[in-house]
Amino acid sequence: MRFQKLLQLSGAVVLSTLSLATAQAATGGEPAAVAQIDVAACLSATAADDMDKAGPACAAIIDNEKTAKPDLIKALVARGALLARHDQVDRAIADDSRALLLDPTLADVFNARGELWLKKGDKPKAVQDFGAALRINPNHEKAKANHKAIARELERIGAQMAVAGKPSFNCAGARRPVEKAICGNRELADLDREVYAANARVLREARNEGEAKNLQREQDDFIARRNAGFGRPGYDLKKTMQARLQRLNGVDGY
Prior knowledge:
This protein is mainly alpha-helical. The protein has helices spanning 2-26, 40-47, 51-62, 69-85, 89-102, 107-120, 123-136, 141-163, 177-183, 186-204, 209-229, 237-250. It is elongated, with a radius of gyration of 35 Å. The protein starts with a helix and ends with a helix.
C-alpha cells in the first residue's frame, strides 16, 4: 500500500516537471527575463541637450509602467528641464507637474515650474509655485529672488489698478485749468501720478540733503512752467509730462 502511494507521488512530480518543460518550450525554451530599466541614457541625453536622443530615451522610462518611482521622477525632471530650455513651455509644465504629484517636496521643481508659469504670463500661478518652493526650503536663493520680484510686480499692478485714472492730487480741490484738464483725462492723470511717484523716488535715493533740495527745486520749476504754459498756442501738456517723466527716470540710469 505504501509502495503504491510512493508511485503516485512520483508520477505527480514527473507530470509537474513535464508541464513546466512544455510551458518553457511554448515560449522559446527559457523563462522570460525581466527587462532592466536604465534611466542613465535619458539623463545623459538631456544633460547633453540632445533632443533627438532624449526624446526616445526618456519616453522609454516615463511610459514604462514598471519604472521605479525614483527613476520616473528623475526622467520627468530631466525631460522637463530640456523642454524648458527649448521653449516647449506647456510640455515642460506637464512633466514638472507630474513629477510634483509623485514627490511634492521638490523645491527646485516648484521653482522651475514657477519660472515656466511666468513665461506664459500667469503671474499668480508663478508666485504660488515660488512660495511653495520657499515653504519646502526657506533658503532657496532662486525661489527667494523670483518670489520677491513677482510679488512686488503683482503689488505694483494691484496698486496701479486701484488708482488708475487718478492724478497725484485731489481733483475735488482742482482750481487751475491745467489741473482740471488732468483730472478730466485718464491718460494725463496716470502721467501726473507717475511723474509724482518718480520724483518721490529720486528724492528718496538722493545721495545727500543738498542733492535732494536741488531735485525738488527742479520739480517745482517743472510744475510752475506747466501751469504757466498750459493753454498757450502750441503747448502740448502730454508731451511735456512725458518729457519730465523721462528726465526723472533718467536721473539714476533707469
